[in-house]
Amino acid sequence: MQSFNPKNHSSDNKMFNINNILRENIKNLTPYSSARDEFQGEASVFLDANENAFGSPLNQQYNRYPDPMQYNVKKRLSEIKGVPVRNIFLGNGSDEAIDILFRSFCNPGVDNVILVPPTYGMYEVSANINDVETRKVSLTEDFQLNVEGISEAIDKNTKLIFICSPNNPTGNSINRDDIETLLANFNGLVVVDEAYINFSRQKTFIQELTEYANLVVLQTLSKAWGLAGLRVGMAFASEEIIEVMNKVKPPYNINESSQQLALEALQNVEQVNNWIKETLTQRDKLVLSLKNFDFVVDIYPSDANFILVKTTNAKGIYNFLVEKGIIVRDRSKVELCQGCLRITVGTPAENDILIETLKFFK
Ligand SMILES: *Cc1c(COP(=O)(O)O)cnc(C)c1O
Description:
The protein is of the alpha/beta class and 362 residues long. It has 2 domains: 18-33 and 66-265, Aspartate Aminotransferase, domain 2; 270-358, Aspartate Aminotransferase, domain 1 (Alpha-Beta Complex). It is built from 13 helices and 11 strands. It has a 7-stranded mixed sheet, with helices on both faces. Strands 8-9-11-10 form a 4-stranded antiparallel sheet, covered by helices on one side. The longest helix is centred in the last third of the chain and has 23 residues, at 269-291. The model has no long low-confidence stretch (mean pLDDT 95). The structure holds pyridoxal-5'-phosphate (PLP).
């Protein structure tokens, strides 16, 4: 593709049109119409969904199908995030949102997507499952985008670019200007995965949704919100994109208990904010302690709840810690991460155990 124009920033991407990137079969799809879709409202007798009318073996009423559009959870998220409900999609984890983007926009065996390794592994797995080519443009040595390389890798079949910011496993945020250059020049979707945004000093891209019709922001309840077990992920995008994703998703993708518990959890913003502050304090402490070890070569600046630590002997340290019942992530085989371990920030007690244990590593 022709070179990007980095000046072309503050204006909307005038070339983008969702109909140019949507798969033909999805454009023409008649979505499944559930009983809950066909009748919404108050009634006293529901005989429309073949549910067990007597109840369930559980105390709570799980005999009924859940709300396919998760209105109550979205309404609460809308208040927290300042985004209208119509711009929110909920998935069974953000991993489901990633998969649905592939299935909606990428023709198997024909289209391609851009990945910028080292980054989150699910983009590639999802691409492979959907038989979609991945074009990899490595991050630079300081873990930033190679914008020139990305512009060269794009062709007419490039549908999606995945940017993870703060990035997993490197922990840094991606330069905002570079992401905006992609948004302003690329005629497919730019997916900004903000799984770790709550820990970041950077602003979310959610506020750019009114600016860029080709922006998809992913967030999740799995990290700062402490709800990895519920499987609730979010995508924020234009109404048109959200409509497509809703059409493609399984009708009841967020189960009733997850919806109820997510709604309850989302009342506790203050508790979560306190945990975030404590996590950042602990992260800084952990960095200072780790710097004292001879086997630590470098600790990369982190905007997330984990740190990437370059060591002289990643495999040795990993195995030593496993033996002591402490599990970190060995990322030493990952591109640009030679010798690196990824360490999640734990509770003060857990971090102490890690540091005290490492003193015995030789
Ligand atoms: C953990 C993580 C997710 C979260 O996935 P869920 O399916 O919502 O649990 C998404 N993206 C990145 C980069 C992650 O690290």
